[in-house]
Amino acid sequence: MVTLAGVTGVVNHAARCHDAPMLARLAHAFALSLVTVCPGALPCRAEVFSFAAFSGATGQEVVIYSSLDERLAQPLIAGFQAENPDVAVRYEDLLTGQIAARIVAETDAGGVTADFAFSSAMDLQVKLANDGYAQEATVPESAAWPRWANWRNMAFALTFEPAVLVYNRPAFAGSAPPASRYELVQWLARGGVALHGRIGTYDIQKSAVGFLFLARDQEHYPDIWSVIRAMGAAGVQEFATSQEILERVSDGRLLVGYNILGSYAADWARSHPDVGLVLPRDFTVVVSRVGLVPRAAGRPDLGARFLAFVMSKAGQTILAEKLRLPAVSLEVSAENSAGAMEAALGAQLRPVPVSPGLLVYLDQSKRARLIARWQAALSGD
Question: Which residues partner with 294 through β-bridges?
């Protein structure tokens, strides 16, 4: 059984320059406003956070559109500004669909847009790049970046986040939780009516990551639909968010959660000791948050500089140790990294490549067919 870093008390060795003193320096520069920012009639509101340059200089500001909560992003911003003290940061916290919509609308209107976009919607980010809304950003780390994680030096995977099984620890006292899809089916069969309604997963119609995990499951595991039918027979409960599942696993309403985003699960498990997690040993799908420099960036040089920082050893270490988002860079040797997971799990890991292959998940007819098959399997058809 393999667990993600942090859950078992891994020591944090992040560089001290990214700790409390640096964050304190941000406090005086921090301002929050909630404003309507989308062009035209787009129904889009963003939380906008401004961070003054550490040096007090004015005139340089990098604009970031991101789906990562600002609270989590603060250490990353602090690290970037420590290396670029004359650069201010404007951080706009948006939903993934809003990021794509704004970049398209602002570019098509002939204006400027974000200098850097960072989103958990892999498919939408790749579509932006594929449709000409991103520009090439050659940064020092790009040559050594994994091939699956770099599409034409335009879209880069910046995190390494596996899908995991989560389980209620007290319910498995004295026994091992299922650690593969086959074991999950066997566990459900043995448990019978006692397990009815005690397994949960994402509602793939409401959860983009849940849909992506299922789509990849069927590519890697021909018998996946027997697993789905077994979950359906066991009265699987579907939820839109990771938190809803994790809350129920914590208090025992659910005993197992299937295909849960590992970064959220690991973060939750650190403060909820009754939650355990397992990387499935038959295969583990890995998704990533994707960064790019938009074609219509007002300061593409600063966008590329922020991208380079996130890809650097320092930036990747902050992702892994401060944000608890596993690092892609093989320079980062901490447990919460691609390198550590690959050393432990090897070919078991199946990262989703950053490539136009992701666009198939945006095809509405294919999406409808997969959802229909999912619903049929859950109902026993």
Answer: 134
The two tokens of residue 147 are 């091939």
Helix (H, G, I), strand (E, B) or coil at 240: coil
* Phi, psi angle pair for 181, to nearest 5°: -65, -40
Q: How far apart are CA 10 and CA 297, in angstroms?
A: 39
Whole-model pTM: value is 0.81
**How far apart are the C-alpha atoms of 249 and 264, rounded to whole Å?**
13
What secondary structure does DSSP assign to 318-358, as a single string? HHHHTS---B--TT--SSSBHHHHHHHHGGGEEEPPSSGGG
Question: Over the stretch 133-170, which tens digit does the pLDDT of each residue have?
Answer: 999 998 988 988 999 999 999 999 999 999 999 999 99
Q: Beta 237-239 vs 199-202: how paired, if at all?
A: parallel
What's the helix, strand, coil split of the chain in %, to 5?
A: 45, 20, 35
Tokens 């650690």 correspond to 179
CA–CA gap between residue 305 and residue 16 (Å, rounded)? 22
- The dihedral built from the CA positions of residue 297, 72, 263 and 242, taken in this order, carries a sign that is negative
